[in-house]
Amino acid sequence: MGTGNLRLVDVASALEATLAALGVAGVEPVYRVGGTGAALLQGVRLPVGDVDLLVARREDVDAFDAALSAFPCLYAPAYLPESAQYFARYEVDGVHVEVSTVEQETDSDGLECVGRGPWEHYVVVRCGPYRVPVVRLELRLATELLRDRPDRYEPLLDHLAARGFDAALLDRALTARGIPPGRRRLVEGRLGS
After folding, report:
1. How large is the average pLDDT for residues 104-114?
2. What is the pTM of this model?
3. Would you place residue 105 in the very low, low, confident or very high pLDDT band (cuts 50, 70, 90)?
4. What is the pLDDT of residues 24-62, one digit of tens each?
5. What is the pLDDT of residue 1?
6. Could you tell me the domains of the chain?
7. Are 60 and 30 in contact (CB under 8 A)?
8. What is the CA radius of gyration of the chain?
9. How far apart, in whole angstroms, are the C-alpha atoms of residue 30 and residue 100?
10. Cα 147 from chain centroid?
């Protein structure tokens, strides 16, 4: 898949199969679900093309690689210097599951995949028998605003407006991403932040 048409059941099935494979392998790497899959798992209806798993160490990517050996490996673990990440991609139950580090330094806690942000700012959601740590929506929204993808940031804004959000975290995320004034005004108008 990977086309932006994944449903919650697709994401949940792939994630459950991935976590089951880790259990069978007897490994428990610390991870966070990021990207649009994390938003979908939190109830936001938006286009999702894959499942993104963030880990802190290259050894954790290798642990996923060993655990997922029964699934097609679409991209073997390798360092990608252009994005400063150690990355691998698999097809799990027809869904692309990507596992990576992001090896950039920052003092900010407002970035979705870099620095301490995803490790400090997450929520735990149920996915079948698993309790899954997913990156907070405030961090995802800043990423989508930076990418100027209204088909993703509009549903995130709607969700946060309806359910609430951490205004201070959102402000740090918008600042960390350098969101331009026009898009910041959009957020302020929609969320009153």
Report:
1. 91
2. 0.94
3. confident
4. 999 999 999 999 999 999 999 999 999 999 999 999 999
5. 44
6. 8-191 (3.30.460.40)
7. yes
8. 16
9. 12
10. 15
Indicate if the pLDDT at residue 73 is higher than 70: yes
Q: What b/e string do you get for 154-193 counting C-beta neighbours within 10 Å, with b at 16 or more?
A: ebbbebbeeeebeeebbbbbbebbebeeebeebbeeeeeb
Give the pLDDT confidence score for residue 192 in this predicted structure: 84
Residue 74's alpha-carbon distances to 8, 11, 87, 88, 179, in angstroms, are: 22, 18, 11, 8, 33
Q: Quick one: tokens of 19? A: 């976590």
8 Å CB contact between 67 and 27: yes
